[in-house]
Every structure is written in C-alpha cells, then in structure tokens.
Amino acid sequence: MDAKAVRCPMHQQQLTDILLQALGIERDGYHFYRLASERSEDPGARDTFAGLAEDERMHFDTLQQQYRNAIEGAPWQSEIAWMRKANENDSAPPFGTRFHDRLQKQHVSMSALSIGILLEKNSSLFYQEQSKQPFPEEVRELFRQLAEWEDRHYQTLLRQDEALRDDYWQANRFSPLD
Asked: Is domain 3-73+95-171 annotated with CATH 1.20.1260.10?
C-alpha cells in the first residue's frame, strides 16, 4: 500500500479513529504522571513521573500533528525528532536510594508505580496492534516506535516495582498471606 492509500476514505477513517484513540491514551498518561509527580513525596519519584509525563506529552504532540495531517490530507511526517531522543536512564531504577529508605511513607508513589506499569503495558500492546494494520510502512513504523518506547517505560517501571515490592510490603506490615 502506498502513502496515497491512507487518504482513501476507508483507510483515512480507520487511521483517524486510531490516532484519536492514541491521543486519548497519551493525554491520560500525561495527566496521570503529572499528578503522580505532584503528589509524590520523594524527589526521585517526582522526577521519574515528571519525565514520564514529558514523554507522554511529546507522544501526544506528535500524534496530534499526524492527526491534523490525516484529516487535512497532508503527507504523513516520517521524520520525527522526538523518536531520536535517547533516554540514558532506561536501564537504571528510576527512584533514588532515599526512596527505598523511606518505603513506609511511599503509598502514593508505589500505587502510581503499579498503575504506571499497567498503563505502559497496555499502551505498548495497543501500538503493537496498530503497527500490524494495513497502513503504509511509515505509519506502521510510527506505531512500532511508540510500542518500543512504551515498552521501555513498562520495563523500567516493572524493574523498579520488583526491586521495591517485598521491602514495601514488609515496611508497611502487608502480607498477602495474613
């Protein structure tokens, strides 16, 4: 399928519907992470959630431009600058060591971490599915890149949760067997 096929009414409607859904996902993620950043008591957690909010905002802005192009019949933008932004901290746990030392008081951050894991996993799966739709390669490539980006968020948050979960439960006298 060539780039002109996106402009046919059937594919155009499918693409704009998907982009609207993606915009909602990114908007919700942005607001959630911004709220988590504002409510977290730990500076490392605040910074982590603020960084995730910024990523979601960049995703939203890019998708919004692609949506405008789709409804106006403008060409798809293949070069997306934000996709080239490397996150050097993806491999490191996002919260600092001070967070671990004060686990008993980190209910908001730990809950936000759990919810963020679900958001990122669902976002990654959504974009993976969209990358398989019968769109031109450049459209599928955007969805593949978004899926990878969201999967990196998911993996980072999951590692943080795994590193903290048992100690958090112990610090707060929570046991699934009680």
From this structure: yes
Computed from CA positions of residues 139, 15, 73, 9, in that sequence, does the dihedral angle turn out positive or negative? positive
Mapped to the 3 state alphabet, what secondary structure does 66-89 carry?
A: HHHHHHHCCCCCCCCHHHHCCCHH
pLDDT in tens, 53-73: 999 999 999 999 999 988 888
Q: What is the pLDDT of residues 113-169, one digit of tens each?
A: 899 999 999 999 999 999 999 999 999 999 999 999 999 999 989 988 888 777 766
Instruction: Report the alpha-carbon distance of residue 25 to residue 118 in Å, rounded.
Output: 12
Which residue ranges make up each domain of the chain? 3-73+95-171
Structural contact between residues 162 and 95, judged by C-beta atoms closer than 8 angstroms = no
Write the DSSP assignment of 134-175 as a string of letters.
SS-HHHHHHHHHHHHHHHHHHHHHHHHHHHHHHHHHHHTT--
């993996």: which residue's tokens?
155
Task: Name the residue among 56, 70, 80 with its Cα closest to residue 17.
Answer: 70
